[in-house]
Amino acid sequence: ATVSSVVASNHPKFEPGQLVLGYSGWQDYEVSSGKGLTWLDPDAGPVSTALGVMGMPGLTAYVGLLDIGQPKPGETVVVSSAAGAVGSVAGQIARLKGCRTMGVAGTAEKCRYTVQEFGFERCLNYNDDDFVEQLKDACPDGIDIYFENVGGKVFDAACALMNTAGRIPVCGMISRYNDTALPEGPDTLPRLMRAILTRRLLVCGFIITDHGHRLGDFLKDMGGWLESGEVHYREDVTAGLENAVHVFQGLLAGSNTGKALIRVSDDPTMKR
Ligand SMILES: NC(=O)c1ccc[n+]([C@@H]2O[C@H](COP(=O)([O-])OP(=O)(O)OC[C@H]3O[C@@H](n4cnc5c(N)ncnc54)[C@H](OP(=O)(O)O)[C@@H]3O)[C@@H](O)[C@H]2O)c1
């Protein structure tokens, strides 16, 4: 998604200087019919948040956790990619709903700020040799909701600890996006299917574009949580459109710390 300012307009709803949210791609200018553009209120906060905590990633966390996860107070929620744009919000909403929140991330530094800035109870580094034991130790009562962002070994470790009637909102599987063949090692599908059956697990994939009807509730709730300081967010901003490919590759390797953004020009809302 992109935040842009209108340079010239023949459209009755848009005027030069207005800020709009859209999907114009990685380019300096776009000619638009106005379809798919949403006017942004520059007084509502930094417009960059329309791309992160108040935008698609935030809504993804909201829908995945609340609508599919159905969290109840006292439940244990594990979130993978917990330091990132979606995961950090999913964990904070779970905490606000009274759950015990455990994060999983790829470096000690990410784990540090996941606990200190986002208020997760604990965050485990999946690159530690004893990660599986650490997860077991962190979840003595099992896992009620596993918010799935990554796939691979984190998914396997979390699945093994799911409680009866547990829920797994399947948001992403970033560790597998570049696969060109089946992973090496034993076929774990029969074990997974057995767990789904015997523990009555709900495993539900979702694509956020199907859930636009939740936008109003989300904006109201998230706006309130940000204003009250109950939800925090991080942005990892890189200047220059020429760096977009490098930043995107870094996302797949874990080098972003927060919502990865490319700034192509000055942000007028930061001067206020
Ligand atoms: N279903 C939907 O509609 C929807 C919408 C938006 C996003 N998503 C998905 O949600 C997930 C999170 O997206 P995001 O935008 O919030 O990104 P993000 O978490 O801000 O950044 C991606 C993170 O993924 C982690 N990662 C990369 N390779 C990994 C690997 N091999 N194993 C484990 N973790 C790995 C890295 O963190 P670590 O350093 O912690 O590994 C990286 O920083 C992605 O899977 C994305 O595709 C789904």
Could you describe the largest sheet, including whether it forms a barrel? Answer: 6 strands, parallel
Side-by-side strand order of the widest sheet: 6-5-4-7-8-9
Specify the CATH class of the largest domain.
Answer: Alpha Beta
Domain count, please report it. Answer: 2
Oligomer: single chain
Please identify which CATH superfamily of the largest domain we are dealing with: NAD(P)-binding Rossmann-like Domain
Query: Roughly how many Å is the radius of gyration?
Result: 20 Å
Low-confidence segments, given as residue ranges, are: none
> Approximately how much beta-strand content do the residues carry?
15-25%
Compose a concise summary of this entry:
The chain folds into two domains: 1-40, no CATH class; 56-209, Rossmann fold. Helix content is 31%, strand content 20%. The chain is built from eight helices and eleven strands.
Structure report:
With 272 residues, the protein is an alpha/beta fold. The chain folds into two domains: 1-40, no CATH class; 56-209, Rossmann fold (3-Layer(aba) Sandwich), CATH 3.40.50.720. It is built from eight helices and eleven strands. The protein has helices at 56-69, 85-96, 108-116, 131-138, 152-159, 189-198, 215-227, 244-253, and strands spanning 2-5, 19-22, 38-40, 76-80, 100-105, 122-125, 143-147, 162-170, 202-205, 235-239, 259-263. The strands form three sheets. It has a six-stranded parallel β-sheet, with helices on both faces. The protein has a three-stranded antiparallel β-sheet with strand order 1-2-3, with no helix packed on it. The mean pLDDT is 95. Bound molecules: NADP nicotinamide-adenine-dinucleotide phosphate. NADP nicotinamide-adenine-dinucleotide phosphate (NAP) is lined by residues 57, 60, 81, 83-87, 105-107, 110, 149-150, 152, 154, 171-172, 174-175, 206-208, 251-252, 254, 256, 259.
